[in-house]
Amino acid sequence: MALNLQDVPRVKTITKGDFIKHYFKPQKPVVIERFIEHWPAYSKWNLDYIKGVAGDKTVPLYDDRPVDYKDGFNEPHAKMKMADYLDLLKKEPTKYRIFLWNILKEIPQLQKDFSYPEFGLRLMKDLPMLFFGGRDSYTFMHYDIDLANIFHFHFEGEKRCILFDQKQNDYLYKIPHSLITREDIDFNNPDFEKWPALRHAKGWICELKHGEVLYMPEGYWHYMRYITPGFSMSLRAIPRNPKNLGKAVYNVFVMRTLDNVMRRIKGQNWIDWKNEQAIVRTQKKQLGYKLINFVVNQMGFPPTV
After folding, report:
1. Is residue 39 part of a domain?
2. What is the domain extent for residue 157?
3. Residue 267 within a domain
4. pTM
5. What confidence tens digit (pLDDT) does each residue in 69-127 have?
6. In CATH, what number is assigned to the domain containing residue 165?
7. Distance (Å, rounded) from C-alpha 172 to C-alpha 233?
8. Is residue 305 part of a domain?
9. Which residues of 217-244 are buried (b: 16+ CB within 10 A; e: fewer)?
10. Residue 254, domain member (yes or no)
């Protein structure tokens, strides 16, 4: 049995009006295949080019180790010269990834290679972020702290993306006071005996190639797996939905602070408690759905979930 996923819709290119009407307003993802062919980055950006312009920079690296109470929020697991890291990507599979690397701050000249597309949303021009990964490296299923609208531009290689909207939270074993699901869930090959609620989650899947753009709506969960070594750039726009904007403010100013304080006070017990609660709370939700469906069935109506 596989996850209940449908293909993300694909278009060759798109106008601002059609994007707003068909994808932004209904908050649905889309892959745009040929939107950036006029960018210098389309023909220039590959691992060798990045090595040439940024090889001497020291970059933060992250792997797939479980969260430890000693780690700060988004604290890197290692650091390395970009040139050495890119050599490693080409040489062999590695768990190390780079994420949230601000190219405007680190390598200003790269900004000349792209422009800010007119999608009808105000993109945050001071936050163009790069993400790198080696073959079979992946991110945990997560959503971004600011619940932004994200445009994810992929360069070199192939990347698999699995998405869920926030309506699927009750099935994903979400860690409380966090932005991730249980880290021991393999979304590439899930164990439904161990994680039965995943059977009910409905999501999206796509594979990105060089030059393709994935639009991820506000607060979408995403799991990214590098099929081959490559990198991507994300541009983002603040959430327009007032509810999502409120959640973003809470995450940045309350949730993150609370989590860091509790790590210092309770240490690993806090992490263990959150992991346990992800299971407990999901099981309670599923029991509630079963009870509702039982009552509805007794009344002669079709199941609701």
Report:
1. yes
2. 4-248
3. no
4. 0.93
5. 776 656 788 999 999 999 999 998 899 999 888 987 889 999 999 999 999 999 998 88
6. 2.60.120.650
7. 26
8. no
9. bbbbbbbbbbeebbbbbbbbbbbeeeeb
10. no
